[in-house]
Every structure is written in C-alpha cells, then in structure tokens.
Design the sequence.
C-alpha cells in the first residue's frame, strides 16, 4: 500500500494520544513471561507488530517454527528467552532482511552461559535452532558496540540463571539508554541489577508480579515534533513524562535548534510549539538515540538547518541501511546529504533543483523512513510514500492520526 499526502491549509493544531512505548512493551512481555504465575497479555502495551510478535513467540508450542518477520527486537529477546527456558525447543527465523542482521554476539554470550543454540544458515545470522535449558550464567563477555538489545536480552533472562550474570561490556555500549530502561523495568519486577558503564551485574532470583503500563512512545512523538516545526503548528501530545525511561525523550532538546520549544501540562501532555528563534547548524552525537536520526535529518533539511550527526554506526543493520536510505530519499527532495565515514551523516546546505512534487519516497520496509518523510508533504503536497503499511511495526495508527490532525491521505492499493 502507498499513500499520497496533502497538508491542511492552516498550521496543524491537534491532540494526539500516542501509542504505548514499543521498547517498554517488548521488555514487559519478556519479564512477565519469566514471572511465576503471570500469563503475558497485551493489556497496557503497544499493539504494534513487534509486541505482537513477541507475545506470539512466548506462547509458541514446543518444536514450533517461530517466524518473527522483520521484528529485530523479537528475534533478539526471544532468542534469549527460549535459550533460558528449560524444555523449549524451537526454530526461530525472520524475513530475508532479518537473515542479514547479525545475532552472533548474543549467541556467543548465551553459549558462554551454557545455552544450546545452533545456526541453521550462515554463521552469525538467523535462522536458529534453540534447545532451552537451565543456564549457568556467571562471567560473560560481549561486544557492546553492535546492539544494546543483545545486552538487554541477556539481562532479562539473567535472574533465572543459576549464578545470575556478570556482563563484561567490550567497547562503547550502543544505545545505552535502552540498557538503562531494561534495568529500570527489571528493578520494578524485583530483580537486583547494577548497571555500570563497562559491567552489568544481575543477581539470580525470581521476578515478582508488578503493575505497570507502558508510557507514551517518545519515538512516535518525534514525528509530531517534526510536524509542529514544519507547519508552525501547536500539537498536544500525551501521555509523555519528563522522567521517562526512554532515551528518545531527547527529541525535545534536539528540536530546540529548529526553534521549537515544548510546554508541559499537569495532565502529562507535551505541547511542542515553534518560535522565531532557530540555530543555523546542529552538531550532535546520536549514538544513544539512533532512532531519532531520520526524524532529525528530514526536519533539518526542510528547515535549512545544517547538521553533522555522528554515532550512527548501528543504522546500517536496522530494517534497512538507514544511512544509505536517507541519502537516497533526501536527494529526491533536493538535499545532498553526505556519509563522510561510517556512522556519520552530514548536510552543509547543499541543494539541487527538484520538482514541487518529487519522486515517490521509498521506505524499504522501514517504519521510521515512512513516518520521518510523511511530514515533508507540508512542503511537497501530494508526496507519495511507498509501502506505507510498514508503520504497523511501531505505530499502527499513524496514518489515521495524521488524518485526524487535518492531513488528507489517499490510500493506493
């Protein structure tokens, strides 16, 4: 399915109820599945594809072939969950892109804990055959530079290991706030976690039931911050919390360079509102918040804000190579962004002539490409986004929310 988007005539004013955090929801499913006496369900969680894939995975029958499709979070979290669940024997697989996304560091670490995990295809990549057992745990070394989800997956299953786990982190941890999120949710469920910069210790023990509803998704909020900037509108977003566990709350401070300020209200809402003040350039290390890269790159180009973003090494192994995808699709809008070196994206104001309505934007099956480029229709009415159904991976109601905010959307099947 493709969509064609036309903006409202006036600045966007809307009230948006954001979906629950995808990242928190994924962790809560695994923690609940490991908590005695608790049956995991979707209550209070995101209804996105990733959450549903993990829910289906923890309920899969023995000897099942579990296909997580494009859900990288599900692949990593379920791999650790199956390995640490005695008596569970499964094959876990995904789509073609998933078979290109590395999982070797997680498998190596699980094997150090005593896990039985076998590659069924290329070494270091899915699909995997896993025979669950009681894991010993103990001292484990892991490359922390590839994905924080490897670390989070190990942390969440560590309480059911005989010796817990002491994770020795090699290199700078990618997306560190997600590790802190995992630790925070685990503590709420009764786990003993010490998360240092290069060592994480989780004591053996049992999770206990606790009541917690996932917060509103700050990653989803970022697209509405973008819309507020580009339309000079005022949008009420809820529920969003200042003391959130989510690293992507940083979008609030990053967007200030474009002249956006955010006002908080007593009911847990955030209202991003543009001002007349803006910086000509932003230089930022996004290694802790790589999911904001697409939103920030598109916003900066459209507002004429030069940028240099670093710390984006992990973007090449996401749903698509996000750096290459950004370069290609921003070129269609008239912006020549440069990948100077691995993990670095730069735009110094270089533009080219382009049609008012550029060529269709390809999403490459990546939900964040679709949502980051959709607001560009404010400057390019009639903009076409290809493969628009991919937003269901994290924000199934995105197109409906855009319509409710006054955008006109044609669905093309």
Sequence:
């Amino acid at each position: 399915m493709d969509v064609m988007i036309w903006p409202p005539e006036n600045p966007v004013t809307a009230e948006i109820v954001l979906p629950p955090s995808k990242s928190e929801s994924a962790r809560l499913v695994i923690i609940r599945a490991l908590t005695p006496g608790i049956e995991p369900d979707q209550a209070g969680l995101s209804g996105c594809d990733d959450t549903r894939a993990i829910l289906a995975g923890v309920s899969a029958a023995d000897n099942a072939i579990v296909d997580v499709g494009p859900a990288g979070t599900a692949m990593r979290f379920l791999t650790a969950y199956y390995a640490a669940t005695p008596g569970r024997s499964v094959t876990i697989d995904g789509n073609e892109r998933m078979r290109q996304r590395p999982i070797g560091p997680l498998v190596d670490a699980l094997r150090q804990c005593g896990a039985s995990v076998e590659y069924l295809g290329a070494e270091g990549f899915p699909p995997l055959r896993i025979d669950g057992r009681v894991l010993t745990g103990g001292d484990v070394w892991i490359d922390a530079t590839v994905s924080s989800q490897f670390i989070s997956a190990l942390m969440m299953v560590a309480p059911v290991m005989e010796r817990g786990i002491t994770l020795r982190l090699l290199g700078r941890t990618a997306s560190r706030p997600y590790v802190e999120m995992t630790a925070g949710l685990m503590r709420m469920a009764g786990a003993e976690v010490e998360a240092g910069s290069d060592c994480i210790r989780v004591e053996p023990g049992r999770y206990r039931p606790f009541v917690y509803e996932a917060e509103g998704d700050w990653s989803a909020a970022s697209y509405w911050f973008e819309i507020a900037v580009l339309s000079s509108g005022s949008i009420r977003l809820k529920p969003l919390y200042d003391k959130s566990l989510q690293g992507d709350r940083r979008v609030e401070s990053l967007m200030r360079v474009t002249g956006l300020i955010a006002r908080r209200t007593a009911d847990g809402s955030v209202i991003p509102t543009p001002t007349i003040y803006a910086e000509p350039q932003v230089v930022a290390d996004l290694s802790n918040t790589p999911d904001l890269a697409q939103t920030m790159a598109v916003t900066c180009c459209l507002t004429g804000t030069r940028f240099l973003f670093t710390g984006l090494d992990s973007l090449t192994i996401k749903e698509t190579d996000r750096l290459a995808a950004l370069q290609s699709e921003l070129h269609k809008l008239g912006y020549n962004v440069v990948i100077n070196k691995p993990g670095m994206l730069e735009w110094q104001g270089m533009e080219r002539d382009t049609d008012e309505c550029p060529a269709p934007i390809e999403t490459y099956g990546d939900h964040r490409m679709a949502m980051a480029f959709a607001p560009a229709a404010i400057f390019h009415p009639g903009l076409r986004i290809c493969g628009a159904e991919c937003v269901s991976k994290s924000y199934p109601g995105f197109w409906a929310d855009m319509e409710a905010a006054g955008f006109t959307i044609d669905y093309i099947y």
